[in-house]
Design a protein that fits this description.
Helix content: 10-25%
Shape: elongated
Radius of gyration: 25 Å
Low-confidence stretches: none
Oligomer: single chain
Mean pLDDT: 92
Number of strands: 21
Strand order of the largest sheet: 6-7-8-3-9-10
Strand content: 25-35%
Distance between the termini: 40 Å
Length: 367
């Protein structure tokens, strides 16, 4: 198959859009509804035509190639199996219409069932399957065709959290076992990070950032990515900077209580923003409840605890600083009785990020 290339595509949410995916690559397209990810999949599948621009599979121009001839499988959240066919016959349907031999059909159906763990339900009807099994059946029908490209448009959107996690694990295993390019589209920021071998964040048809999950999470390229990637998302705090000898002092706007000192040596490119508005970004897990004996420090601030929300091993604390609502994700047990009280908190300064509020871009840290 070689690479897939979209060159100067214009249609729906996309305008003059250019993008490449390498042979057998796993790419996750993520963004809010309307970001353009579903349109990209439909263009590659041949289900939608661009008003201008070209689509290539390797050196072959695909604009005029019908969907059925593209060796592409498309799986979406709206998959509906044939209700009067068993799982086995559902898996075999596309192969029979493609006039494969019965020997080849049996071989491919059994291989797909084994990959997805469907061996024990082969003779059952779709109505007797749970939601997770039906979605694995959709994947099975796709991979039984042995396509060169598998397109997945929010395939697990209708499933509960546990079933979604199992489905994502199945997809990752598929990529290891199949010689296919896989492109996965999602509007879920948690799913985006979980699936992001190469994560591409989109907003209104424009690529905002791409890279592996860790890079996109740790150093979001702009305010949009910072607010989309992660659950809860990054805290974004508006304020101003002033320089005090070898420190940059960030002061939260208005009546906010946050006033922290950042080393100039870490943010040399932020000196141009001294006296100007700026945005401080900090992930919820990089705000901690300060020990009782800790006094004021260059990284501490006081805040009202609005609500205490246990989330398994961690606890989300919803804070009010006077100018912003923030979230602190604490790894230590916090009693619900803390709600309604003021407490001291600390920011991990090594994890602080600064953004230009006008352009939205991240000001890269030095070193």
């Amino acid at each position: 198959m070689a690479r897939i290339a979209l060159q100067k595509i214009s249609v729906a949410e996309l305008s003059d859009f250019t993008f490449e995916i390498q042979d057998r690559e796993f790419v996750t397209l993520a963004g809010p509804p309307g970001c353009g990810s579903s349109t990209i999949l439909r263009l590659i599948a041949g289900l939608e035509d661009p008003s201008q621009g070209e689509i290539f599979f390797g050196e072959r121009r695909m604009n005029d190639v019908p969907a059925k001839d593209r060796e592409v499988a498309f799986v979406s959240r709206d998959y509906a199996p044939y209700p009067r066919m068993s799982v086995r016959d559902n898996l075999a349907f596309a192969l029979r219409t493609g006039k494969f031999s019965e020997v080849e059909i049996k071989k491919r159906v059994l291989a797909a069932a084994e990959v997805l763990g469907l061996q024990d339900v082969m003779d059952r009807m779709p109505a007797t399957l749970d939601a997770g099994e039906r979605q694995r059946l959709a994947l099975g029908r796709a991979i039984a065709r042995q396509p060169k490209v598998i397109l997945l448009d929010e395939p697990f959107a209708g499933l509960d959290g546990e079933a979604r996690a199992r489905g994502r694990a199945e997809i990752r295993k598929l990529h290891q076992r199949l010689p296919a390019t896989i492109i996965y589209a999602t509007t879920d920021p948690v799913e985006a990070l979980a699936m992001g071998v190469r994560l591409v964040v989109l907003d209104r048809g424009v690529v905002q950032q791409e890279g592996n999950s860790a890079t996109v999470y740790d150093a979001p390229a702009n305010l949009f990515v910072a607010g989309f990637v992660g659950q809860p998302p990054m805290n974004l705090i508006r304020g101003t900077l002033k320089q005090d000898r070898d420190s940059l002092v960030f002061s939260e706007q208005g009546d906010g209580t946050i006033k922290i000192r950042l080393p100039v040596s870490d943010f040399s490119n932020a000196k141009d923003f001294v006296g100007q508005p700026i945005v401080l970004g900090i992930r919820p897990e990089h705000i901690a409840v300060a020990p009782a004996e800790t006094g004021s420090s260059p990284s501490s601030f006081r805040a009202l605890v609005d609500m205490v929300e246990p989330v398994g091993a961690d606890t989300n604390l919803y804070l009010q600083t006077g100018a912003h609502a923030l979230i602190c994700r604490s790894h230590d047990g916090v009693d619900r009785s803390q709600a309604g009280h003021r407490s001291q908190f600390e920011i991990d300064l090594k994890e602080a990020r600064l953004f230009d509020p006008a352009s939205g871009r991240l000001l890269a840290r030095d070193g």
